[in-house]
Design goal:
There is one protein chain. The protein has five helices and six strands, in the order βαβααβααβββ. With 176 residues, the chain is α/β, with parallel strands linked by helices. It has a single domain, classed as Beta-carbonic Anhydrase, Chain A (3-Layer(aba) Sandwich), CATH 3.40.1050. The chain has a six-stranded mixed beta sheet, with helices on both faces. The chain starts with 18 loop residues before the first strand and ends in a 6-residue tail after the last strand.
């Protein structure tokens, strides 16, 4: 039986999301993204103030045409996030190199072969999605990031700003 606290009702802590993160579902990247997202959010100690949407291929999952419902689902979830958390000011698009979804869909979207070790495809696709977001939601800031392996180790990642490649952060080290 639960113990009563003398009639005082505890208040739940409400935290206002200020950012929305779009990332890939790839299991190789999720822990690393979580370890570094606090660097991507402008205010210190605000790492827990973001909503998260994950799709295969991240940005590519929205613009590809093989599964149009993915894009529709993203826009619906995005709209719901903005309704539920009206203090969202920034969208972080986070793709990653060596992406399996890019291997499947990229050629159909951009008529080029996907080079998993190059930022070029991710630069083009996140740029395309950024323009769509800015057109629909001109008051939101959109940032483009890419997770990439350090020293080609698939479990040791760094995140780099596609608009300012000098800005990058190492993700946490993994215990082997």
């Amino acid at each position: 039986m639960a113990k009563k606290s003398g009639g005082k009702k505890k208040k739940s802590v409400e935290v206002d999301a200020t950012h929305l993160v779009l990332s890939c579902i790839d299991h190789r990247c999720t822990d690393d993204l979580a370890s570094v997202v606090h660097h991507l959010i402008d205010e210190p100690q605000q790492w827990n103030r973001y909503d998260h949407i994950a799709l295969p291929g991240a940005s590519l999952g929205i613009v590809q045409h093989m599964f149009p419902a993915w894009g529709e689902a993203f826009w619906q979830q995005f709209g719901a996030a903005l309704t539920l958390h009206p203090k969202i000011t920034t969208v972080l698009l986070v793709d990653h190199l060596h992406c399996g979804a890019y291997k499947l869909f990229y050629t159909a979207v951009d008529d080029r072969e996907y080079d998993g070790s190059s930022r070029d495809a991710h630069d083009r696709i996140t740029g395309r999605l950024k323009r769509k977001l800015e057109k629909r939601y001109p008051s939101l800031k959109v940032e483009r990031w890419v997770l990439e392996p350090r020293d080609e180790d698939a479990l040791d990642w760094r995140v780099t700003n596609l608009d300012d490649p000098d800005e990058s952060y190492d993700c946490h080290e993994h215990d082997e």
